[in-house]
Amino acid sequence: MSSKYKLEKSHQSRRNFLKGAAGVGLLGASALSAKAESITRSSRENKVAKNCIFLVVDGMGRGTLSIANEYSKKQYGKELNWIRLLKNKHVVTALQNTASANSLVTDSAAAGSAWASGERIPNGRINVSTEGRRLNPLFSLAKKKGKAIGLVSTARITHATPASFVSSVENRDDEVSIARQYLEQEIDVLMGGGARSFLDHENALLKEFKRVGYSHASTSSEMLQYGDSSKLLGLFADSHIPYAIDRKHALDYRNVPNLETMLRVALSNLSKHESGFCLQVEAGRVDHAGHAQDIASIVEEQLEFDRCIPQVLEFVEKHPDTLLIITTDHGTGGCQLNGFGEYYSGTNQSMDRISKIKGSYEYIAEQLNKPKNLNKKFFASKLDIKLSDADLSVIQSMMDKDYRIYPFGYRDSGAEHFQGFQRDYLAANLGSYFAQYFAEQMGIGWTSDAHTSELVDCMALGTGANLIPQYFENFELNGLVRRALQI
Fold first, then answer.
1. Residues with catalytic function
2. What is residue 401's predicted lDDT score, i.e. its pLDDT?
């Protein structure tokens, strides 16, 4: 076979692969329901789950789910796959309490660790107990039983949620140590952002991954090229993967993979292991958009996650000895669509207004660092907002570090000292500044820029799904999954 033919065949294969990834998200309601019924019927024959898939949308509260569903109906004429599953009698649905060991409001490290270790953990730690004991994470136990392990995220792959499934550190920010633990355990598939944790000291850690046999991908094309490698390390951004809304509208990110394609590569890779696999897939930036009070970004992130659901249902239908869990670790921001206008009629235009936003606050902040971008035309093109001269003056003061954002709004840097958590990055400042505008013009409100304590949703299908009760504490999920996998 000529090298030219091999190359053409490879390109054709990748095109078909991507085409399949896009098409699977278009299943109709009846097809989705049929798959759920088929999975439930087939899974009854299996006493032990061979595979386990965690689909985690980090930071999704009920308000975010509601707005994204209304947006999907308005813009695309269909409900979210999540909502369709909730309506399906064959799907196990539950509410989950998310408290940590030291707070009614959890962070992602404690929430993920509760799933992974079966214990409530203090905020800020990953699988290290209140007493300082290092605990054995769920997927690490599965790895020791011979199962392949995959972690996929739109956040840094060393971020709290993916890390909680296999690592143990006293400080969640110790991401280099987390990366080293991935290497020590030889986690089979790692895909997301966070290249910076692998590139310190002349790329020593990345070189070590390559030395023990990992294929390294830094672009979508390379990911597809190396997708069948026995060990795959995909690092597609220095920090978090750019927001979905920016990947949609900015050409800068055209070779950054989306969550659906990373998921598809991971499933294709891990399903080749005869002993089965455990896979965690995280839409990590729903949480970040909630912190930034960024409505268009949170909607697009939720939609991207939702497109993963039919793909996983298709896999579980073919492999009914799989336990599928779809959930979130906590809410973030308290996002809500609130009534405004006469008899609340103003909300009828809110979804169209969201659709006119073409960039995240994060992307806008990056672009403002370039010369001459601080102008009314730029903000009109990205946020569909007509700024006044006074608005531009305030934004300039943000760029000059004269303004800071605090948990309860703006304080001038010359104001009296305020004891509290301070964020001074520009994207958060922009979110706080425009929050009032979007509340008045679109009815979009936020309770804070922090996590929330609300009960969150969980759905399950496949072998072992029947073990999950209608209400549980987050740490109880560990025992249920271990029982299904018999580990």
1. 108
2. 78
